[in-house]
Amino acid sequence: MKITVLAENSVFNPNFMNVKSEHGLSLFIEFDERKILFDTGQSDLFIHNAEKMGIDLSQADYLVISHGHFDHGGGLKHFLKINKKAKIFLHINAANKFYTKIFGFIPYYVGLDQKIIAQNTRIYFIEEDTQIEDKIILLEGFPEVFPQPEANKALFEKSKNRFIVDKFNHELVMLLIENDEIVLFSGCSHSGIINIIEEVKLFSKNMRIKATFGGFHINNPISKKNESPEYIDKLTKALGETYPVFYTGHCTGENNLRYIKGCMCRKIQTMNTGEVIEV
Q1: How far is 84 from 228, CA to CA, in rounded Å?
Q2: How far apart are CA 270 and CA 272, in angstroms?
């Protein structure tokens, strides 16, 4: 399985392809004769980076958008212009209206383009765990057995002209199964990476999770604040008790990643724009 990072907060060094970064995530996955795009980042940057790396996104078979935030699905309209065949998967709640609040009180829209979603017939709305193919599975709904990140409290859903705290019932993760092992893809892990892993373990029974890709959402991109040292320590301990190698970045935060890597060494790896990872 080969994973190419098309968009991430940081750029792989050395940057031979002259790719660029943005606050967002987009991964191109070559797996079992399938080409899968997981998230699009917030703009058309993922397309330009793909072209520089010799990747033809018009041939992608599937697009999975992990949740309803623009830094993971903002590039959807650009993808639709260049790809005419891919099936697109999105949680049914991801088309709702999502906001953050600048300075704690100024609403700022961070959701997806609702008109694009409403007008497209290639989108499959996910309401329950769904098996796309034998070895490609989407999971939703993650019970809280480990505390969710405090950074979630700065994110809201607008419903009936009221702002309510986002419960992240619009989040999907993707499982790719190879040789009875799972590679897990989770955009931001708003539901909590430990909660997601526990749900995957319940679903997968005897299969172990080999690797995970995605952020931990322990850094707020607006306020630049990290989770508390106590939370980071608790999370690091919990991660250390699991099996996978974690490829992370984006909303994990550079300082947090550096600290966790100092404790977990090779079990934590970075994702950078332009990087090619084989697992």
Answers
A1: 45
A2: 6
